[in-house]
Amino acid sequence: MAAISESSGILTAVSKPLRTNQEGNRPLLHGLWSLEVDISDRSKNIVAASNRPTNSKCIYQCRCIILFLGLALWGCSGQQSALEPSGEEAASVAQLFWAMLGGGAVIWLGLMALLATAIRGKLGPIDNRAATQLVFWGGAVLPSAALVGLLGYALWLMPGLRPFANSGAPQVIIEVTGRQFWWDVIYRLPGGVQFRTANEIVLPVGQRVEFSLKSTDVIHSFWIPSLAGKVDMIPGRTNRLSLVATKEGRFRGPCAEYCGTSHALMAVEVTSLPVQEFALWTERRKQPSPGVFAPGSELFEKHGCGSCHRVEGTSAASRFGPDLSHLGSRNTLGAGILPNTPETISSFIVRPDAIKPGTHMPAFDMLPPDDIRSIAVWLKGLE
Ligand code: HEC
Ligand SMILES: [Cu+2]
């Protein structure tokens, strides 16, 4: 050990004073177990743990670690968790994660055991030849073998993670375009049927779905952690992703690439439904909402909302903003950030920029509050 510590620059660097002991003026390096490093005594660079934790201190530290792990694991479940997979592709990603974590943990534990042995001085002095051997086996052969093993495993899993590897033609093709700060969604179903929606994706359980991912402004990234891996949406390019949802459920897909001021306020709501319910959902989407003829549509048209929005069954047909044809049936408003109620719709119309800074929808705070309310109630009725 002495041979290594004297010739190695690393230990010299570590033994720089990080903190000074109050009583004396001895520099201390504080680790998890308060190991004391004494650099004034050069003959033995590292002094073993002279102030080992007392029992109560140890219990306190253990509690802290358990609390920390508990909090960390708590974040690993829910609508947006890659560790609670509800799709085939997400299951492969989770499997890879656990294998990598296990491999990493074994390597880390081995290293810590070696470090502890070295610190306690149990190895004794070793000669140059032994030190070279240690560096060769521990520093070159072992890491290479571990990395080749883990990489091999990842490559072996990969065909399942790549689009279209597992199956024949997808049943449903969904074109999703990332916009600042919302998602434009077009469904292409067998038989040439297609319709448009926004900020929501509904999937059939057990059927392969293909996503065609685009962007019209900046780079966004499409990621539904519970269902599959992450794919960037790049202007001028179409990226593809395919997935199979294996469970019914509601999931959240945050935009995963910084795309501007309201990047954190841009998520897509995803629901997976049994095949029959999915078919019903698509049936309803192919037609105008029955609520379209209710009062309110004339105000929507009069105030120029149709210059940016489309509502099936009215003259509003612009593709600049989200398609509002069936807005009322969505659970959330403004790309997953607000509950969908007439009140939230009203406040969005009045000051969208106050809710989503940098949004491309202008404020309508100059309109009479009654008009706004009527439009909001009408939009909420578009189921
Ligand atoms: C200049 C274009 C433009 C005009 C005009 C416009 N909007 Fe928008 N609107 C947008 C854009 C862009 C978004 C997406 C905002 C975001 O989420 O970043 C949006 C979003 C919305 C949303 C939320 C949609 C969703 O999927 O959650 C509603 C509701 C809405 N607009 C209603 C209206 C109404 C009502 C009017 C007329 C009073 C109107 N808009 C006029 C561009 C416009
Ligand atoms: Cu983003």
UniProtKB/TrEMBL annotation:
Q: Name one GO biological process term.
A: ATP synthesis coupled electron transport
Q: Where is the Cytochrome oxidase subunit II copper A binding domain?
A: 169-284
Record's keyword annotation contains Cytoplasm? no
Q: Which domain of life is it from?
A: Bacteria
Using the UniProt record, give the first listed, main subcellular location.
membrane
Q: What is this protein called?
A: Cytochrome c oxidase subunit 2
Molecular-function GO term, any one: heme binding
